[in-house]
Design goal:
Layout (H helix, E strand, L loop, with lengths): L1 H17 L14 H12 L31 H13 L39 H10 L8 H16 L30 H10 L4 H11 L4 E3 L18 E3 L10 H8 L7 H4 L7 H8 L4 H5 L3 H16 L17 E10 L5 E11 L10 E6 L8 E2 L4 E2 L3 E2 L2 E2 L5 E11 L3 E6 L2 E4 L4 E3 L5 E2 L6 E9 L9 E10 L8 E15 L2 E9 L9 E6 L3 E2 L3 E2 L9 E2 L2
Parallel strand pairs: 14-22
Antiparallel strand pairs: 1-2, 3-4, 4-10, 5-6, 5-11, 7-10, 8-9, 11-12, 13-15, 14-15, 15-18, 16-17, 16-19, 17-18, 19-20, 19-21
Helix pairs in contact: 3-5, 4-5, 7-12
Bound molecules: protoporphyrin IX containing FE (HEM) and 2-acetamido-2-deoxy-beta-D-glucopyranose (12 copies).
Length: 551
């Protein structure tokens, strides 16, 4: 099994490396598709990030947990899956608009987006949309759009809820809408023709619609708070609670289809069995469209899983015209989880960070990672060995979570004495610019809120034209945007002026204040005119930055 997976990676990785950084691949923040793919790989391979709110599958991020007496029937994984549907379904395929574009983040107040998230302060304005987006904000950076997070949320939910921990074919590069899209999420009471028209508008046939609904209605259920006319009092806890779509609401599987067809368990769920005929939308979709033919074809576990992954992938890939999506995210077995250049007080350049590897349990874990550097003069350095690998803690919310097998971190810290231009791991390579870089050990983030950053950068002195040479620093910060809880990554520029020299470098310094904080992490890069540009470095102290806290 593992060998097969690896063979697939090799094919994908070749594609990734061959991908040009073309105009379509760079967004307004000058982020390439390769950068976006790497950011998603890093999240998938950090168990404490995107995997954590949906692990285990019954976990609830923003409301009481299942064994709590105040449990309300919330399930974060189910909300994340449903969010994909509610964002996707208002696509207009012939106009080339909508789809997975995070316009849903502006649409939380619409009756069509009702869904439970317990909120004692506003009991009748419940919406699973804001809770979903706020969950993503915990890990948000300029590299991952909210629309890519919505897609990644489905991938993460399936990794933890599908017993096979199957990774969906996920691409990166979705661009966020800046305002609400059209209304049009079909509600149960809207009837079959409205549902058919909505799916057709989004490019989905009747067969696709049946498959999408059957796949979506495997996790979670219908909530008393939102649909009191469907959900009986018997299933509720203190007036809340959910009537599940099947007997295994915390497992992504074909149980809902089986129970619909043989009448056992939940009998296909409340949208089939409710005595209120108006609300029997799942029954109409499965039965009245093609007399159960499509649903029967997906009744085996294998057919269900394969059909669902294909239909979910089509939902994720429904994006506005002009959006350029990346190749499929592996994740690759070897990546740089974090790396940065720094200068010691003696002016020596140090390149350090962590290499990450994941590997199936049937293969032994290498004691060290091996890599080399591309030399500016051509060719590569001799092989370099990292420090000893450290097995990553695989416990998430009290359970073992290993969707990619054991993950090992290999720290490295190299004194750089020759001119290098890249670091190379197996099927992974990252450019290094020794001419110009942010110096994290001399930079800091203030303790005010929102913070300001003192940025110091090192430019090779031979590239400093005159005493008046300045650098342009850019802060990419998560700005508050009206009517959405999603941040909008926004730039603020600042000028860095020369301060002193250190070794072969001249140190430049500047201060940049973050205007507000819409939830997420900030990055900074520096430029010398149009000839030199540094890597973007994490400036927030949360999440492994090496900026000092407090200036
Ligand atoms: C005409 C089509 C559909 C209708 C009328 C419909 C209707 C509903 C309703 C009424 C609920 C209960 C919400 C609540 O009480 O919190 C629900 C839940 C859900 N729906 Fe759909 N749905 C449709 C299609 C889909 C599709 C295509 C997906 C696939 C992604 C999906 C995924 C979900 C999920 C995962 C839940 C459970 C949410 C939770 O437990 O919090 N639905 N749906
Ligand atoms: C979708 O776009 C087409 C072409 O612009 C338009 O004619 C049609 O009315 C749109 N559909 C909806 C439901 O808005
Ligand atoms: C959007 O793309 C589709 C498919 O490539 C094409 O049929 C349609 O004409 C495009 N619409 C616009 C407005 O560019
Ligand atoms: C919420 O709605 C329920 C019934 O729909 C109503 O009884 C209750 O008074 C409402 N609560 C508030 C705070 O508006
Ligand atoms: C489709 O399945 C449902 C639920 O099992 C059943 O009630 C209905 O009669 C079936 N329809 C056909 C045409 O067999
Ligand atoms: C059935 O549901 C519809 C739509 O929500 C509602 O208007 C109607 O009152 C319900 N009927 C009963 C008997 O609860
Ligand atoms: C299933 O669909 C058929 C054809 O539309 C209809 O005659 C039948 O009553 C439906 N069955 C149920 C249980 O709704
Ligand atoms: C590698 O990661 C570990 C764990 O997060 C961290 O403590 C360590 O400082 C990192 N090492 C380097 C060289 O960045
Ligand atoms: C993977 O990690 C677990 C502990 O979390 C360990 O028992 C197992 O032996 C590891 N597998 C390999 C191949 O080292
Ligand atoms: C390394 O080589 C590159 C390309 O020839 C050059 O731009 C750069 O200034 C050199 N760096 C150093 C530290 O000499
Ligand atoms: C450098 O590392 C890359 C990636 O592991 C490898 O393909 C290449 O063969 C190495 N170069 C040398 C000279 O060993
Ligand atoms: C969701 O958040 C947005 C932005 O703060 C707000 O405008 C909207 O009213 C919220 N909706 C709900 C249901 O919480
Ligand atoms: C920052 O500077 C860059 C490069 O000159 C420019 O493209 C960008 O628009 C500037 N941003 C702001 C917010 O002024």
């Amino acid at each position: 099994m593992f060998l097969l997976t690896l063979a697939c990676f090799l094919l994908q990785v070749r594609g990734l490396n061959g991908q040009a950084l073309d105009a379509n691949g760079l967004d307004t923040n000058d982020i390439s598709l390769d950068d976006k793919v790497l950011a998603i790989e890093r999240l998938l391979l950090s168990p404490g990030t995107i995997i954590f709110p949906v692990t285990p599958c019954d976990f609830v991020l923003n409301a009481p947990l299942i064994n709590n007496p105040d449990y309300t029937g919330d399930q974060t994984a189910a909300q994340w899956v449903r969010t994909v549907f509610h964002d996707f379904i208002t696509a207009n395929i012939s106009a080339g608009t909508g789809g997975l574009d995070a316009s849903i983040s502006f649409e939380a107040d619409r009756p069509e987006n009702l869904g439970l998230v317990f909120n004692a302060a506003t009991p009748n304005t419940t919406s699973f949309i804001n809770a979903t987006i706020v969950g993503f904000n915990l890990f948000s950076t300029v590299f991952v759009s909210t629309a890519d997070f919505i897609a990644l949320g489905l991938a993460a939910s399936l990794l933890t809820c599908d017993p096979d921990a199957r990774m969906i074919q996920l691409k990166a590069g979705r661009i966020d809408a800046t305002k609400a899209g059209p209304i049009g999420v079909p509600k149960p009471q809207d009837g079959l023709s409205v549902a058919k028209a909505a799916f057709a508008n989004a490019g989905f046939s009747q067969t696709d619609m049946i498959q999408a609904v059957a796949c979506g209605h495997s996790l979670g259920g219908v909530h008393k708070l939102n649909f009191p006319e469907i959900v009986g009092n018997g299933v509720t806890v203190g007036g809340f609670g959910a009537d599940h779509f099947d007997s295994t609401p915390f497992q992504f599987d074909n149980q809902n289809v089986k129970e619909y067809l043989d009448g056992s368990g939940q009998g296909g769920g409340p949208l089939v069995t409710t005595t209120n005929v108006t609300m029997q939308s799942d029954l109409r979709i499965f039965n009245n469209t093609d007399g159960n033919a499509t649903i029967k074809a997906m009744s085996s576990a294998t057919a269900f899983e394969n059909t669902c992954f294909t239909i979910f992938e089509r939902m994720l890939n429904t994006v506005p015209n002009g959006t350029h999506l990346s190749n499929v995210v592996g994740p690759r077995p070897w990546i740089l989880m974090e790396s940065h250049l720094d200068l010691t007080s003696a002016g020596v350049v140090v390149h350090s960070g962590n290499i990450t590897n994941y590997i199936g349990s049937s293969t032994s874990i290498p004691a060290t990672a091996t890599y080399n550097y591309t030399l500016a003069t051509g060719g590569t350095s001799a092989t370099v060995k990292s420090q000893a690998g450290v097995l990553k803690d695989d416990h998430v919310n009290g359970v073992v979570s290993l969707p990619f097998g054991n993950i090992t971190w290999y720290p490295f810290s190299d004194t750089i004495t020759t001119n290098i231009t890249a670091i190379n791991l197996p099927f992974f390579s990252q450019a290094i610019n020794l001419n110009l870089f942010v110096v994290p050990s001399q930079s800091c983030m203030s303790t005010s809120s929102p913070p300001s950053y003192t940025v110091r950068a090192a430019l090779l002195t031979k590239l400093v034209a005159s005493k008046t040479t300045t650098l342009l620093g850019t802060l990419y910060y998560p700005a508050v945007q009206p009517l959405s809880v999603a941040p909008k990554y926004t730039q603020v520029n600042t000028t860095l002026t020369s301060l002193t020299t250190l070794g072969a470098y001249t140190i430049f310094s500047g201060v940049v204040a973050q205007p507000n904080n819409g939830g997420g992490l900030s990055h900074i890069d520096v430029r010398l005119g149009t000839s030199q540009r540094s890597a973007k470095i994490l400036a927030s102290t949360f999440g492994g930055s090496f900026f000092k806290s407090g200036c």
